[in-house]
Design goal:
Elements lengths: L7 E4 L6 E4 L8 H12 L6 H11 L10 H11 L7 H12 L3 H14 L4
Antiparallel strand pairs: 1-2
Helix pairs in contact: 1-2
Length: 119
Amino acid sequence: MGLGRGRIQEKLPGQGGSVHRAGRADQSEEPALSRSKGGLDGAAGVGKKVADCVLLYGLDFLEAFPIDTWIKKGLQKAYFRNRRVGPKKMEEFVSRHFGRFAGYAQLYLYHYWRNQPIR
């Protein structure tokens, strides 16, 4: 069961932009993810985390990785040896380390770090 070759286009309410989901599951989705995130970021009140949540949970962009406080603290401790890193470096690491299924990793990491004390 794959995504097929279809194209889904969603209009954002009250916005002139749109979010595109095109391509096949076995093709690189990075350009589509970047374009879609850009379309969402333009909406009033939508930041990076909300855009990534919509892309991951609403539009099945499995490479989207929402970063909130729990994820940021957990990544800093587990992968960056408690060093503070900027959001761009963290996003690049997540993309390289978890790849096209980063969204699944985010879901499990969030649950673990939310329910286990991060020391």
